[in-house]
Amino acid sequence: MKKQLFFFLLLVFVLNTLKAQTIQTDVLVVGNCNAAFAAGLQSAVSGVKTTVLLQAGGFDINPITGDLNSGLQAEFLKKMKGLDTDFTKQTANDVLKKWTDSTKNLTIIRDLLWIKAEKVGNNWNFKLSDGKTIKTKILINPADQKLNGALKITAPKNNWINLDYGTTTYRTSVASGKFTTKTTGIFFSMFDLFIPLQENFIWISDSQSMLIGQAAGATAAYAAFFKTKTSLTNLKTVQGELLNYKLNLIPFDDINPSDTNWKAIQMVGLTGVLKGEIKDNKVIFSPDTQVSADEIKQTITDYFYKAQIWFDDYKNSMMTLSSTLDMICYVGNKSPENTRKEVEKKWKTGYNFKSDFDLNKVINRREFAALLQDYMPPFNVNIDNKGKVVR
Predict the structure, then answer these.
(1) What is the largest CA-CA distance in the chain?
(2) Cα 324 from Cα 98, distance rounded (Å)
(3) How far apart are the first and last CA of the chain?
(4) Pair 346, 352: CB distance under 8 Å
(5) How far is CA 129 from CA 6, 109, 375, in A?
(6) Which DSSP symbol is given to 183?
(7) What's the CA gap between 370 and 353, in Å, rounded?
(8) CA 380 to chain centre
(9) Alpha helices in the chain (DSSP H)
(10) Side-chain half-sphere of 338: how many Cα atoms within 13 Å?
(11) What is the rounded distance in angstroms from the CA atom of residue 83 to the CA atom of residue 58?
């Protein structure tokens, strides 16, 4: 009996020791670059347990120049500016250390190397130089080819894409605005974060971009939070999460995230109902430009069959506030009288529009985007991985 008790206690001791040496996390980011920081922070603030394995004493942040800044990158630059000192890697790391140390759900592991990386069942396992093991459900790799080699993964170089309205891929954007090839008019598709046949692995080929890092973090958090595969990630949910954290998904240079109507303009811009103009290597939304029926007709009817009937009967070339509300109510099955009263009430105080509420006025792009997203949102319509509408 004493012998059995001894072996039982020994077993309990061994199991407890192994448990103490195992770090369980929902999302693991391996790296200390710009993208690794943003991926780890966004994953954590999106509500899942996240670990960043730096393999160094701190983050190694490269300077950011020329980008259309938004999201965590804009917040980082704001914190750096507040120091009133020149950018150095040390000051950048000091800012990020203070930021990450105060972030819930986020653990930063410094000065430890991984010595073995493998996939075991549904988990990614990392043996560390201190003998401990990290087990994670979702792995984010910011451009570490050595890690890919250890995992026997071949990863392509997934590039940023120039905004081109000749295709619908821009509707799958989860980041935009990096300055490259003399323009900020580019975006990154969520589906380029995935590698075929590699579930729960997110690949970032651009290690120097916080913009794409933030997108990767939200994407990983979705799979972890909903306990699903990365291939089943809901694009609209991820886009909505990133917009909640002020990341530009369409690179409109003239609409700042601090703008009251920024989110609505981003959402409608993602659908292509209102397109930007590529001008001087930037994408311009032109919020004060009046809306014509021709520029919105085809895309809106692509999203809503019922809109075709309304446009068949509409003969004017420009969209007035009255006709916009009429279309919204007809296609969206809403009460014309109640909708008009609601919009009039919110015109100045809710939307912060500068113009007076006038049903006969020709509506501008800012006003049209806000009303469309509020009452008849094409953003909520499902699309496939190429951005085509799915009914």
Answers:
(1) 95
(2) 48
(3) 69
(4) no
(5) 32, 12, 56
(6) B
(7) 10
(8) 16
(9) 2-20, 34-45, 71-81, 89-101, 145-151, 210-225, 235-244, 262-271, 293-303, 305-313, 321-332, 336-349, 365-375
(10) 5
(11) 19
Query: How far apart are alpha carbons 5 and 355 in whole angstroms?
Result: 83
> What b/e sequence results for 44-68 when a residue is b if at least 16 CB atoms lie within 10 Å of its CB, and e otherwise?
bbbebbbbbbbbeebbbbeebeebb
The helix/strand count (H/E) of the chain reads as: 13, 13
Distance CA(166)–CA(55), nearest Å, equals 43
**Cα 54 to Cα 57: distance, rounded to the nearest angstrom:** 7
* Residue 333 three-state SS: coil
Tokens 């710009």 found at:
34
The Cα angle at residue 343 between residues 337 and 346, in degrees rounded to 5 = 140
Q: What is the DSSP letter of 314?
A: -
Give 290's DSSP letter.
B
Q: Are 133 and 127 in contact (CB under 8 A)?
A: yes
DSSP 254-272: T--TTSTTHHHHHHHHHHT
Find where tokens 């009251």 sit. 260
Long-range contacts of the stretch 73-78 (C-beta < 8 A, 24+):
73/38, 73/210, 73/211, 73/214, 74/246, 74/257, 75/246, 76/210
Coil, helix or strand at residue 32: coil
Tokens encoding 167: 């295709």
Q: What is the DSSP letter of 356?
A: -
8 A C-beta contact, residue 384 and residue 390: yes
Is the Cβ–Cβ distance between 106 and 100 less than 8 Å? yes
Per-residue pLDDT of the chain (391 residues; tens, 9 = 90+): 555 544 444 444 433 444 458 999 999 999 999 999 999 999 999 999 999 999 999 999 999 999 999 999 999 999 999 887 888 999 999 999 999 999 999 999 999 999 999 999 989 999 999 999 999 999 999 999 999 999 999 998 888 999 999 999 999 999 999 998 789 999 999 999 999 989 999 999 999 999 999 999 999 999 999 999 999 999 999 999 999 999 999 999 999 999 999 999 999 999 999 999 988 889 999 999 999 999 999 999 999 999 999 999 999 999 999 999 999 999 999 999 999 999 999 999 999 999 999 999 999 999 999 999 999 999 999 999 999 999 7
Q: Whole-angstrom Cα distance, residue 79 to residue 75?
A: 6
